[in-house]
Amino acid sequence: MRAPISIVIPTLNAGDSLPACLGSLSEGLQAGLIRDLVITDGGSTDGTLSIAQQAGARVVTGAASRGGQLVRGTQAAEGDWLLVLHADTRLAEGWSGAVTTALSRPGAYHFRLAFDVAGVMPTLVAGWANLRSRLFHLPYGDQGLLIDRATLDSAGGYPDLPLMEDVALARRLGRALKPLPATAITSAAKYQRQGWLQRGGCNLITLVRYFAGVDPEILARSYRR
Question: pTM surpassing 0.90?
Answer without folding.
Answer: yes
